[in-house]
Write a structure and sequence with these properties.
alpha+beta, 58% helix
């Protein structure tokens, strides 16, 4: 099980001083989705791009170009850079290690029998889909859905944890069927294999919970670290809304405390 522990718990990101835990996390909400590429930022509402920023200096609202002066373009650039300094790292932190952990779970569970439980594959797909509905990254983009950043930890410790538990324990039936077939054909000692399976399932479940709690703690810490940045971003957004009133229709950052 050392491989499983390393795989699930390996999260390749350096965190800052533990003193940041002492800070009270601000209650930050992203009210719209964001898609970020090297050149473009899109603020998305109900699957449609409502605001688009090209190269940090060109603004479109509802598909219409907004002509900005030099000083106004500087505010837009500050807003764009503020998004780029925070969101991609949050997406990276949310996704790093989770897919690796899912792969490790699949390998361990499959190793208990010669047949791959179909229910495991289906349930893990549900887990991946739930994750990608909130956070997604590709070779050339980052995506984050509308959500409260102060509740990211609940997403991992409750929703994702429950789905992974269902995936692992839902596989038990298929594995037992496979073990029954092995017993009928007199392949190995079925009692030893069943006992071993139960022990592995117990370890897997505990490692899942430890992994997801660690992920939640990291995200909570990062959100706390970003509180000042997000406050600054909110102020910059307010300045931009004063310059371009149409931006107020798609208010992105909302800080409640």
């Amino acid at each position: 099980m050392a491989f499983l522990s390393r795989a699930i718990l390996s999260l390749p990101i350096a965190l800052s001083s533990i003193a940041a835990f002492a800070q009270k996390p601000c209650d930050v909400e992203l009210r719209h989705g964001l898609i970020i590429t090297d050149d473009v930022i899109r603020i998305v509402d109900k699957g449609q791009t409502r605001v688009q920023i090209n190269n940090n200096n060109q603004l479109f609202i509802r598909g219409y170009w907004v002509d900005l002066g030099e000083d106004e373009s500087k505010v837009l650039e500050q807003f764009s850079q503020g998004i780029r300094q925070t969101v991609p790292e949050l997406v990276n932190l949310a996704t790093d290690g989770v897919n690796l952990g899912l792969s490790a779970i699949e390998q361990v569970v499959e190793g208990m029998s010669d047949k791959e439980p179909e229910v495991l594959k289906t349930q893990l797909q549900y887990v991946e889909r739930a994750l990608m509905d909130k956070f997604k990254r590709g070779d050339d983009f980052f995506f984050i859905a509308p959500q409260s950043l102060s509740q990211i930890d609940d997403f991992f410790t409750k929703e994702i944890s429950q789905k992974i538990h269902s995936a692992v324990h839902g596989s038990l039936g298929a594995i037992l069927v496979s073990l029954g077939d092995a017993f009928k054909s007199r392949e190995g000692n079925i009692e030893d294999r069943i006992n071993d399976m139960g022990q592995r399932m117990d370890i897997i479940t505990k490692e899942i919970d430890k992994s997801l709690q660690k992920k939640a703690d990291q995200l909570e810490l990062k959100a706390s670290e970003y509180c000042e940045y997000l406050n600054t971003l909110d102020v910059t957004e307010s300045r931009l809304q004063a310059i371009v009133p149409g931006m107020a229709d798609f208010d992105l950052v909302q800080i409640k405390s």
